Amino acid sequence: MTPESPAAPNRFTLELIKGALNAARSEMEALIARAAMSPFIREKKDYFTAFLNRDGELVVSTSLTLAGNLVDAILEEYPAETMRPGDLYWYNDVYGVGGAVSHLPDMVFVMPVFHEGRLFAFAEAWGHLWDIGGSVPGSISPHAVSVFQEGIMIPPVRVMREGVENREVVRIFMRNSRFPDMLRGDLKAIMAACQLGARRLTETVERHGVEVVEAAFEAMLTETEGALRSEVAARIPDGEYAFRDRIDSDAVTDRSYFVDVVLRKANGALEMDFSASDRQADGPINFLMDDSVPKFMLGLWMCMDRPGIGMNGGFERAVESVVKKPGTLVAPRFPAPLGLRSHTMIRVTSALFGTLAQATGGRASAAPSVYVLYYLRGRNADGTEPLCIEGLSVGFGARTFADGIDAVYYVAQENYPIEFAEMEFGVEIEAFGIHRDSGGAGRWRGGCGIVRDVRVLSDEARFGIRLDNCRQPAFGVHGGLAGAPGRVIVNPDGPEPWDIATMSDGTRLAKGDLVRIVTPGGGGWGSPADRPAGDVLADVLDGFVSEEAAARDYGVVLAGGGVDREATLARRAAMPRPSGMFHRGRYYDAGEDRMDAAPAAVSASARAGTG
Amino acid sequence: MIARHALSLDVGGTFTDVILADRAGGALHVAKSPSVPSAPADGFFGGVDRMLDRSGVDPADVATVLHGSTIVTNAILEGKGARTGLVTTKGFRHVLEIGRAEIPRAANLFSWVKPRRPVPARYIFEVPGRIRLDGTEAAPLDEAAVEAAAEAIRGAGLGAVAVVLLHSYANRAHERRVGEILRAGLPDVEIALSVDVLPVFREYERTVATALNASVQPVVRRYIGRLSAGLAGRAVEAPLLLMKSNGGACLPEEAARGAVHLALSGPAAGALGAAWLGRAAGIDDLLTIDMGGTSADVALVRNGQPALSTAGRVGEHPLAFPMIDIHTIGAGGGSVATVTEQGAIRVGPESAGADPGPACYGKGGERPTVSDANLVLGRIPPALLDGEVALAPAAAETAIARHVAEPLGMDLIAAARGIVDLVNANMTGALKVMSVERGLDPRDFALAAFGGAGPVHGAELMRELRASRLLVPRFPGILCAIGLLATDLRYDFAVTRLQRAGAFDAAATEAVFAELTHEADRRLEANGVPPERRRFRRSADMRYEKQGVELTVPCGGPITGNALAALVADFHALHDRLYTFCEPDGPVEIVNQRVEAAGLTDRFALPELPAASSERPEPSGERLACFDGHALRPAPTYRRESLLAGHAVEGPAIVDQLDSTTVLLPGQTALTDRYGNLLISEGGP
């Protein structure tokens, strides 16, 4: 018999506790999905759940790299010794909590969990609430220049004391929404999920004992930390690796912004230094980045092949420091707007991949593109105002072991079926397909974006969009080419097609106008000349790559529906080899701030005025 | 002579279970024969021949042949359907490829790879022509383009083609016309139209269902051709009925046309069997777990009927028509316990399968499995199938010692106990998905545990979930074959007809129901079901305005204004029950209308056991076994055949039988009911 020592629960007990926590989290998420009212939560499934230890470290959680350090800001206001069982705390105040969440619609709820009067853990849930006030319906606008335009700010408050709801604070909040009924359902669902999580955690403690459960928390953190540390030790040599990636614009001005990261490893210690990043933006792409975010990204990439290693605070422990400079894009000063922070968040990912590519001789993913949202606010003569908000998918970066994901939005968020969109949004979708040749060519191809043709059926409409990677397409790595940019064209097949700026709002459209939204692809990985000709042929046959691009980018010559072997051999022999680690427009190496010439304005509407 | 026997065959991956049931007398003959995965019809007839041979029943005395098959499941999961093409609306060639654009919630976004679609885009052909949302024609069908597609399909040598046009549920004309042109031009190619397979909105899900249907149509057609010929050759004149995922059966021609409906044929029969035994025992609400060699299937029975869902999946593919709601996990007797380099332990989903099987089978398996752990813990006997298969306890001990106990620095019993605890936790998780995650409290349910391995673990699962009781069927290993005996013919008809809040049209609603019912009636007529045996049930899929989630609400008929008001009230109540809230003033829409048609078959009476003359049965012996904690203790063993109606057994105890073993924990009591089921509860008799 193996004695159960609190310091080291045996492996089976550890797995049982891990399983119980994950089952409890899954139950919390199922409850949110069932009980929430808004489409953002019920269909888009934009929510997150976690358990944290008494120090506020994540122990188990959804694998989304958007936030962290969820508890400290609460403890500052409400010291642990003042908390009681049944308390529930709430906030969304991004600046007030130092980036624990990263834009206002994400409402965080945290419940302390006690055993015999001692606080030993927290149950947490957050969800994206659909309208929390602000300057436009839905609260997020590409045109925001201050966080005050993006909705109400809730500093850490105690929304429940010993199980009794503080209705006053909830009423004040509701009064600020255009859709209070929906919010009520969502709030109720998320709060109930926290209570459920706390109950399940208590049951786990009753079964295994609090010392064993706390020791299991620590073992899970240590295990994750150890996994990342050993991957880093094996794959990243000591040294300094710098990379800079660019965002098209901040939607308010036409200026491009960059994220800069230096990855330093010395004597086994790892530092991620973002201090050379661009100044904070005028528009809402600012990302008040918690230190955990780039650490979680690194951990998820480096430990993907380690079964059973979950995203938790162990990844944070494994990276010694994250450096940011106040007033920059990743550490903006209050009250810079934040609504489109995912544009910068995804560039943090790609810049990090840029440093890893240098550290590992190219063994890192190529860049993903940023998911797209568009807003079509219709108005009819009869006074009805159909509102269409759709998320659109893009291409992700090619991996070292697989093509990039084609036509993908993000984790756990589904698109609207055409037959649903046409029912609900006052539009007709006339085409929906793969954006051919948008995935960067490579040994592994970047994911392709999509093309969606949207016909305006209302008498008039205003159009807004957030479409990045148009001026700065997703870069390729280790010989792979960059993805193709996105674009928005009105009446593309008419006599006078015209472009809408890709980060803009308020463009006027008339009944019958057709808007073609073309989304960008991901970067490719490895030399395109190394992609098996059969795979290139398959891509041509399936509409991902054109015959011209097969010859031009891959050196694969097709004839009679098959590969012309000889012509392909000759053409591939004559292809120039990659002349830099990265590619965007041409091959380049890190240290060069590769910025493409702007093909079109991205932030000002090209025609028909702006709103 | 009136034929009176039902012949039931459940063909699984390893074994074919066969039952011959005498409808009049209630006698049951039971047999097990090996399946032949490479030639499924051979396995089927191996079972038929063995049964006819052993029972001596005249083939002419077989009134009906019932069959559950994994042929469609395997064809889908292994991608072994026909090479399939798809004809779709111009502009929408990549709908299937794009899908719903999400990375699954539990996945690592950096490593996830999109699953392969059932039809590659090279075989997807666009045809101009467009039906609008409301069914009006925006552009006429380009028939020349359809001809060209037919030519290309012929050129590519495809065996099947699916037709899915945008909004075809609102106006079937274009899709039907495409079907006609393809049939004329491609006489040897199987064709499936989405308006026949799934005429409801959501183009991606409709396309997946239709494409999969087309791809498995030829597989099923060939298979049932062999079955029909083989049955005729054996002078079995009885009709062949195939089990569908919805818990009903269909005739062979329907099975070929709606082939994808056989996707959950086997597990659906298990849930149906458990529901039947539950009803007989007076238990209407059950959680069921069918634990076999490689996986465990969990389902839910409410009010005596298996729960259905339109959000089911087979592998990675969504199948959006009514199917018995089944959640499958990789937990079975053959699930392998692995200690990773980093010292983490996991059990399953990898399985030792039937070959080499667990280490204790002595067929060369060296890695420890759940069965090995159960053997080391004395929970299963040292020989299976009544001594036909001797187990090798030493091999089980060696496997667990070498691969689990030593790497983790613990003793053999603790390691074996840990393996059992982990697989139990995995199954408890699956049972919670089916209950708490659907807003149901397991304490309001009894648990039915079956499959060869289910009864070994059932008592622990029941205790863990605090389920009210545990039902272990008299023949746990062949419950799917029993379930087949309880099936009726069943067909589901549905169509999308959107009605906005405040604009419901009772007459139009009634007309749609009448049309669906007429279609359903014709189908039953064609199946030879006499009118007095036809049953129709109506329901409507409804939602709150702006929500993308519909609920299916049963409704009576005929539809009047009052009936619609009642329907809306029922929707609010159902929403409240399932989703914890409702909005009584919220605008409600009707989206789809459904008619479920049943053709009732002859009922078979469950055979009953003689009553026991004493309260206590005689133990068959004693075995050292682990029930709870980490210690082995001696406990009485019983032969299942010796348990008669009314017998009570107190735990700890073990009940051995041909196809399974039931473990009874200390503090639990098992009562044998008149049908031979064990009803286990906490506490004394």
Structure description:
The complex is a heterodimer of chains A (611) and B (685). Chain A is of the alpha+beta class and 611 residues long. Among the domains of chain A are: 11-217, no CATH class; 365-527 and 577-611, no CATH class. Chain A contains 13 helices and 25 strands. Chain A has helices at residues 11-35, 39-42, 72-77, 167-175, 180-208, 210-235, 292-302, 313-318, 342-359, 418-424, 533-541, 547-554, 565-574, and strands spanning 47-53, 58-61, 88-91, 106-115, 118-128, 157-161, 164-165, 239-247, 257-266, 269-273, 321-323, 372-379, 387-392, 427-434, 450-456, 460-466, 476-477, 487-490, 498-499, 503-510, 514-518, 558-559, 562-563, 582-584, 586-588. Chain B is of the alpha+beta class and 685 residues long. Chain B folds into 5 domains: 5-76 and 221-262, ATPase, nucleotide binding domain (Nucleotidyltransferase, domain 5, 2-Layer Sandwich), CATH 3.30.420.40; 78-218, no CATH class; 271-320 and 434-484, Nucleotidyltransferase, domain 5 (2-Layer Sandwich); 489-599, 2-Layer Sandwich (Dna Ligase, domain 1), CATH 3.30.1490; 622-682, no CATH class. Chain B contains 16 helices and 37 strands. In chain B, strands 13, 14, 15, 20, 25, 26, 33, 36 and 37 form a 9-stranded mixed sheet that branches. In chain B, strand 13 and strand 14 form a beta hairpin. In chain B, helix 10 crosses helix 11 (393-408) and helix 10 (370-376) crosses helix 12. Chains A and B meet through helix 1, helix 5, helix 6, helix 10 and strand 14 of A and helix 3, helix 7 and helix 12 of B.
Q: How would the blueprint of this fold be written?
A:
The complex is a heterodimer of chains A (611) and B (685).
Chain A: H1 11-35, H2 39-42, E1 47-53, E2 58-61, H3 72-77, E3 88-91, E4 106-115, E5 118-128, E6 157-161, E7 164-165, H4 167-175, H5 180-208, H6 210-235, E8 239-247, E9 257-266, E10 269-273, H7 292-302, H8 313-318, E11 321-323, H9 342-359, E12 372-379, E13 387-392, H10 418-424, E14 427-434, E15 450-456, E16 460-466, E17 476-477, E18 487-490, E19 498-499, E20 503-510, E21 514-518, H11 533-541, H12 547-554, E22 558-559, E23 562-563, H13 565-574, E24 582-584, E25 586-588
Parallel strand pairs in A: 10-11
Antiparallel strand pairs in A: 1-2, 1-5, 3-4, 3-6, 4-5, 6-7, 8-9, 9-10, 12-13, 12-16, 14-15, 15-21, 16-20, 17-24, 18-19, 18-21, 22-23, 24-25
Chain B: E1 5-11, E2 15-22, E3 28-34, H1 40-55, E4 62-69, H2 71-77, E5 84-89, H3 95-98, E6 124-127, E7 130-131, E8 137-139, H4 143-156, E9 160-164, H5 173-185, E10 190-193, H6 194-197, H7 203-233, E11 240-243, E12 249-250, H8 252-257, H9 265-280, E13 286-291, E14 296-302, E15 305-306, E16 308-309, E17 312-314, E18 317-319, E19 323-324, E20 326-329, E21 335-339, E22 345-351, H10 370-376, E23 383-384, E24 389-390, H11 393-408, H12 412-434, E25 446-450, H13 454-465, E26 470-472, H14 479-484, E27 489-499, H15 506-526, E28 534-544, E29 551-555, H16 561-579, E30 588-599, E31 621-626, E32 632-639, E33 648-650, E34 653-657, E35 660-664, E36 668-672, E37 678-682
